[in-house]
Amino acid sequence: MSVHGDEILLSPRGKEKLREELEHLKNVRRREIAEKIRIARGHGDLSENAEYDEAKKEQAVVEGRIAQVEAYLRRARVVHREDVEEDRVNVGSRVAITDLEDKSEFWYMIVGGAKESDPSRNMISYRSPVGAALYGKSVGDTVKIRLPAGAVQYRIDAVEWLGEAIE
Q: Are residues 69 and 35 in the same domain?
């Protein structure tokens, strides 16, 4: 599966989480902020009303995030099992690798855009430096990656499709 232009690959769960966030922003946060603005307006002069100013700033942040999530979803493509070669690293893969310098072994789950990543759980985006280097490779391939701490070289030892199971 190739990545085209500015499209964003997501796991099915990643897209679902974005839709849930968008729903919450539009149906809960908008109402909460509208109520804050209504109450602040009731306090009189808006030119010196800190509550009103704060609510308007909060409204701008939420509207910006709504626009951002909507744009992200427009560019998103969900990766399904039938879309990938299971022996190649893709969104939805669990990849076992070995650091060729110190022989340490570890694994990563490759997920969609940065919104899905959680490095503390070994979930990295296919767009991250390590994820991008591994993307499309198969067992036995080696990759050299420039990281802030210096260059590393990894060998891919196993690729397993987890896909929809990624939480």
A: yes
* Binned average pLDDT, 10 residues per bin, the chain of 167 residues: 67 87 97 94 79 93 96 88 84 94 94 82 92 95 92 95 63
Residue 2 lies in a domain: no
Residue 112: which domain range? 83-165
With CA atoms as reference, report the closest residue to 9 among 109, 115, 88, 102. Answer: 115
Alpha carbon 102 to chain centroid distance?
30
For the chain, how long is the longest CA-to-CA vector? 70
The amino acid that residue 126 corresponds to is Y
How many domains does the chain contain in total? 2
Q: Which helix (H) or strand (E) holds 77?
A: strand 76-78
100 part of a folded domain: yes
